[in-house]
Amino acid sequence: MALSLEGHTTRAFDGDLSALHIQAVAMGALVIEQVQLAVNAYSNWDRSIATLVLERERKINLYDTEIEEAALQVIARRQPVAQDLRAVFAIDKVVTELERAADEAKKLALAVLAESDSSGFRPGAATAREARQLGRLASVMIRAAMEAFDHLDPVAAASVLQQDLEMDSEYAAALRRILTRAMEDARQVQAVIEAAFIMRSLERIGDHARNIAHHVGFIGGDADPSATGVLPASSVQVRN
Amino acid sequence: MESAVELTGVNVKPSARVSNDEVVLDAPIEAGKTVGNITVADPIFSCRDVDVYYGAKHAIKKVGIDVAKSQVLAMIGPSGCGKSTFLRCLNRMNDTIEGARVEGSILLDGKDIHDKKQDVVQLRARVGMVFQKPNPFPKSIYENVAYGPRIHGLAGDRVELDEIVHNSLQRAGLWEEVKDRLAHPGTSLSGGQQQRLCIARTIAVNPEVILMDEPCSALDPIATARIEDLMEELRQSYAIVIVTHSMQQAARVSQRTAYFHLGDLIEVGETDRIFTNPRHKLTEDYITGRFG
Predict the structure, then answer these.
(1) Is B14 within 8 Å of A153 when comparing Cβ atoms?
(2) Residue B110 has what DSSP assignment?
(3) B148: how many CB neighbours lie within 10 A of its CB?
(4) Residue B280: helix, strand or coil by DSSP?
(5) Which terminus of chain B has fewer Cβ atoms in its 10 Å neighbourhood, N or C?
(6) Using the beta-carbon criterion (under 8 Å), do B277 and A3 form an inter-chain contact?
(7) What's the farthest any 2 CA atoms get from each other in chain A?
(8) The pLDDT of residue B12 is above 90
(9) Set of chain B residues whose Cβ sits within 8 Å of the Cβ of A147
């Protein structure tokens, strides 16, 4: 069954559900930009971009509040059931994931703003490269998840789950590399600890993208995204 | 500032939409091929291959379904789908309609209700019915409830009859409201009270099953809530089958839901699942308001 939020006899219901969906997609576009800006701010140690990330954070929180209110209204006025009910639930959860992904991006910006006056924790070229690489993966994942959400496409969503496996191994490898640098030069320890937190944040953004993909599958009626047949059940992990 | 941002532009090719055809069926089903489990462990009613014809019109097509004890089964579907016709098969109310013909097997506690030896009056005492519009007899409240037990000889004397009337009104949640005016006409009560009087009248003859044909469609929300509350209590002792146009009501009161469409029983399932994840597209379209 193709997923569609439209086709109700009451066309106003179509409008309410679509408006909710579109708002969440718009919020997603903003969050993708936030992630890219934050990675840029960190890897180029750019205080002005970091400031911009913090400024835009307010917009994201506003989306979060507005979409939650709109979802409540749809439930109260339309009493959605079946796919419509799953969609409203999933949209609300997607918004929570987006908000948390944006929080991780904010952590990168805060690291730049807190430390840019001192020279201590600025990442070296190699660490900046690691951050750029993980940041690129995180952006790709969240973009793919939001594309799947935009088209309500559970098959595309399942491919994000595959990307998450790649992210996990990249994260583990990057962590190993920066820890090796700390072992080689004890003066690097503080910078490396800071970098490890940054990488953890980027990996978490990937996790939020994976959860968004999971919610798209849920709208399609899958309790388990592996049920789409794209991934073997053993390769799908659900984390918080 | 935005231009300073390194965009990791990635185009995700829109993939083919998922086709859940393995689990969700789009096309109307073949008659008698209902989606979901039509059987229950310990059925009070067991219906198989039931066809109903009104003259040349084939109103119900090869419907098979069990009715479980101590459960509310809700039958939903658009007007003319056959849900009321099927309900009326269960206590042979269709016998009263000229030109109506019922085929197939309907077993009540394992015995065919169309058996020649089956006394229809007795059947309708075992399988009571509550209608859309409250229809109290033009008699007193007391007589409305006492009538059935009296003709079925359920009470030996006046004291026993009083007790049956009292218990029935109590179980129907009406006793406190009418105990001081049992001699008043049944028609003097409000719509909701009249409907509960009809329920008291039905349970006075100790039925095993109560059929309800849109019992709340003429009632306000408060009266509706009282009937729904009553159904939850009554299902401990009786099997209840309800036909309703209100999907919210079906979702609230029933444990199992059956969806009818143009005389076919399309899908049967636990109410929990039907309203969150129905398997047939027709069910999905109907309950989400996408029908037609």
Answers:
(1) yes
(2) T
(3) 22
(4) strand
(5) C
(6) no
(7) 68
(8) no
(9) 12, 14
B32-287 CATH:
3.40.50.300
The whole-angstrom separation of Cα B225 and Cα B285 is 27
Place of tokens 């990937």: A206
B187, with CB counted inside 10 A (0-12, 13-18, 19+), is: middle
On whether any CB of chain A is under 8 Å from the CB of B26, the answer is yes
* Tens digits of residue pLDDT in B88-110: 999 999 988 999 999 999 999 99
Res A196 pLDDT > 50: yes
Q: Please, is B282 exposed, middle or buried when counting C-beta atoms within 10 Å of its C-beta (0-12, 13-18, 19+)?
A: buried
Tokens 């309950």 -> residue: B287
CA distance A26 to A117: 35
ipTM confidence score: 0.75
Q: How confident is the model at residue B28 (pLDDT cuts 50, 70, 90)?
A: low
Q: Is B288 on the interface with A (CB under 8 A)?
A: yes
Q: pLDDT by residue (tens digit) across A151-161?
A: 999 999 999 99
Task: Compute CA B283 distance to the chain's CA centroid, rounded to the nearest angstrom.
Answer: 17
- Cα–Cα distance measured from residue B133 to residue B106, given in angstroms and rounded to the nearest whole number: 27
Superfamily of domain A11-233: Phosphate transport system protein phou homolog 2; domain 2 (1.20.58.220)
* Nearest Cα to Cα of residue A36 among A117, A111, A109: A109
Q: Are B240 and B212 in contact (CB under 8 A)?
A: yes
Structure tokens at B263: 């005389």
* A224: its two tokens: 């388990």
- Beta strand pairing status for B72-76 and B100-108? unpaired
Short-list A43, A34, A87, A212, CA closest to B284: A87
A149's tokens: 């959400």
Q: How many residue pairs bridge chain A and chain B with CB atoms within 8 Å of each other? A: 102
The pair of three-digit structure tokens given for residue B147, joined into one six-digit string: 């009538």
Pairing of strands B264-270, B57-68: unpaired
Dihedral in degrees, nearest 10, Cα atoms B189, B195, B200, B206: 160
C-alpha B109/C-alpha B45 separation (Å) is: 6
Contacts of A82 in chain B (CB under 8 A): 275-278, 283-284, 287-288
Helix (H, G, I), strand (E, B) or coil at B53: strand
Contact A145/A225 with Cβ under 8 angstroms? no
Structure confidence at residue B1 (pLDDT): 36
Q: Which of B63, B72, B67, B112 is nearest to B92 (CA)?
A: B112
| Residue A215 near residue A144 (C-beta atoms within 8 A) | no
Question: How many residues are recorded in chain B?
Answer: 292
Residues of A in contact with B21 (CB under 8 A): 1
